[in-house]
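Sample 3 of the quickstart, ligand coenzyme A:
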Amino acid sequence: MHVLFGTLHVHSLLEHRRTPLLICPIPTVLKEELCVIFFLSPASQNNFLSAHSARDEAARLEERRGVIEFHVVGNSLNQKPNKKILMWLVGLQNVFSHQLPRMPKEYITRLVFDPKHKTLALIKDGRVIGGICFRMFPSQGFTEIVFCAVTSNEQVKGYGTHLMNHLKEFHIKHDILNFLTYADEYAIGYFKKQGFSKEIKIPKTKYVGYIKDYEGATLMGCELNPQIPYTEFSVIIKKQKEIIKKLIERKQAQIRKVYPGLSCFKDGVRQIPIESIPGIRETGWKQSGKEKSKEPKDSDQLYSTLKSILQQVKVGVSFSFSPWKYFEMISHTEFPY
Ligand code: COA
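Result:
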């Protein structure tokens, strides 16, 4: 039996990158500032990294600069062996064996080299530094994540998050929108941060008998949203936050503006349209068509209601504070004899 190898480039996924949607209309004056935020060069984005940066931001920039690469690799029965891919598969098997010491080495080797399994490999300086081994079940609508690891000295740099985001985009492209995995107690935290939960969305009949059951491990699932460009998601959210912050600052600057008070009332004007109050439009106030048509009826109604209330108050006041009643009250309390 020939042992052959194949590879799929994840970079091609980025060609299908969806345009980020903004959630509010942007005034023309802001467009230049927003362009700067949206199209910062990778170099200037580097300076942008801060304590508040998303976990995967550094990894995303490293990928753009070509420092790291992601490739889906696997053994194949119908392709010629490729030395580079073979080396990567051996490297993956080593990373998994070191990082998952409780898994038998032979078992890891068998699955990594099994043609039905694929592995998303993370390559830095030509060497494998991490990966996710998985098996796709297209007829069942899910993929099982079998092993996931990043080499010790490269952990907590965002590679694990970026790997998972690439795997999500790869699956969206292949129309599989559910991940399942058996996570041990140490891995549950990581998977939760990648959007996995113990609540499994797909029916049991879809995966029972297909997925390997690991004793003492917890089954976790993640439902993918095909609208989300996962590898760009955190940066889109960050940029949207910056845009909203700028819009709020601009609005606040307008609101802080002090307009001269209205003097028309001194000249005997009794009523003015709300929209003629200086500054009211800048606050975002708009009169809806519905309100416009309702207005005369409402003000008539308001007038008659107020008039009747005032009349009742007048009657009540004149009754309860009639001078006779007042004198009666005083004579009984202050001068009882
Ligand atoms: N439990 C809880 N949280 C974990 C975690 C764990 N075991 N491993 C990582 N995290 C957290 C990180 O602190 C980080 O959180 P933050 O964004 O709030 O700071 C987040 O998960 C992702 O960090 P990231 O840097 O993207 O991941 P990584 O490159 O360190 O890779 C693993 C994460 C799990 C792949 C890596 O730690 C590893 O290889 N662990 C050993 C093997 C393993 O347990 N694999 C999982 C089961 S197959």
